């Protein structure tokens, strides 16, 4: 397994990571036993970066990962946790809380649910508009000093916020959406991260399955499936986006690989400071994603991919407008 260091002084992680959100939330029903088997398969393959959030399934995802890690060496996994998102009993969103006291409370529950003594990377899920990022990072830094957290990360924040956060404590990585059809970070966010020595852990590399080569328009989505409300999956947009997928399929077939593998390989090829997170819920999907590490893209390949899926070619935003308005990374 190829390893990359996150940031200048962050942990060494596998060239791809496993995002576990879909095992508990947002994409309809999942199989608990298969989810645990998938986590085991990832660790056995040398994929050590395991990403979660304390609000995925209101703690369910952390407990699931904790169960999967039982009996294994703690250092097999680099656990990345997002915190701060508030939800009500119906699962609705009710804001963010990154006050120092709240952070320490969230962390205490996370440690208990995961059954570990420390979190490798701890990060606010979004910027809390009511709390300066300096206070948020400062509170996590106290937890680093106390030994409960090893490294500090960020998620979905813009260039100015990244600079302010990094002035308080070293930041190992920014977790943000990045894929062939979500490339906005290239304008300002990615250059600032590279200037400051901050890596990118890229989620949504398959755009929630849209550019995986497996998703079909006729597929019926459950009401608790995030994609049922995602602009890129809506009628009028999805048809156009699936045409892009077919263009990408032609490129993949020429290389003798799958659509998902070419899409993941493209993200990985953007630099050693970018680590794709794959949201596999099943071992077969994980194996397919793992195979992307064996795909080498030449300059000619990258040009062909660019021609098939030009920057800005996707129809529809990556989130609904109401959500984008509250995302610091979109400012």
UniProtKB/TrEMBL annotation:
**Any one cellular component term from GO for this entry?**
cytoplasm
Molecular function (GO) terms listed?
A: oxidoreductase activity
Keywords assigned: Oxidoreductase
Q: Which InterPro entries match?
A: Aldo-Keto_reductase, NAD(P)_OxRdtase_dom_sf, NADP_OxRdtase_dom
Glycoprotein among keywords: no
Record-annotated NADP-dependent oxidoreductase domain positions: 15-308
Please name the Pfam families in this protein's record: Aldo_ket_red (PF00248)
Tree of life domain: Bacteria
Name recorded for this polypeptide: Aldo/keto reductase
Please give the organism. Ferirhizobium litorale
């Amino acid at each position: 397994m190829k390893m990359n260091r996150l940031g200048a002084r962050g942990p060494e992680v596998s060239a791809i990571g496993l995002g576990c959100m879909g095992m508990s939330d947002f994409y309809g029903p999942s199989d608990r036993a298969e989810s645990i088997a998938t986590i085991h398969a990832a660790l056995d393959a040398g994929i050590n970066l395991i990403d979660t959030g304390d609000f995925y399934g209101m703690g369910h995802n952390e407990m699931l990962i904790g169960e999967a890690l039982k009996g294994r060496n703690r250092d097999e996994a680099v656990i990345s946790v997002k915190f701060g998102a508030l939800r009500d009993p119906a699962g609705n969103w009710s804001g963010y809380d990154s006050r120092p006291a709240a952070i320490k409370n969230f962390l205490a529950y996370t440690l208990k649910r995961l059954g570990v003594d420390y979190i490798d990377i701890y990060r606010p899920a979004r910027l809390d508009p009511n709390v300066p990022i300096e206070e948020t990072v400062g509170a996590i830094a106290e937890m680093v000093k106390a030994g409960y957290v090893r490294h500090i990360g960020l998620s979905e924040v813009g260039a100015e916020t990244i600079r302010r956060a990094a002035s308080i404590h070293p930041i190992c990585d920014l977790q943000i959406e990045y894929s062939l059809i979500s490339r906005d970070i290239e304008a300002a966010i990615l250059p600032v991260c590279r200037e400051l020595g901050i890596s990118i852990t890229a989620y949504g590399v398959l755009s929630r399955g849209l550019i995986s080569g497996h998703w079909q328009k006729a597929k019926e989505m459950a009401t608790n499936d995030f994609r049922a409300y995602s602009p890129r999956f809506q009628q009028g947009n999805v048809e156009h986006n699936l045409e892009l997928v077919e263009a990408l399929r032609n490129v993949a077939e020429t290389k003798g690989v799958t659509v998902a593998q070419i899409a993941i390989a493209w993200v990985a090829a953007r630099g050693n400071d970018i680590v794709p997170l794959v949201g596999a819920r099943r071992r077969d999907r994980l194996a397919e994603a793992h195979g992307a590490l064996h795909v080498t893209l030449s300059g000619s390949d990258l040009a062909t991919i660019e021609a098939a899926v030009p920057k800005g070619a996707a129809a529809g935003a990556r989130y609904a407008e109401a959500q984008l308005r509250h995302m610091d990374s979109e400012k």
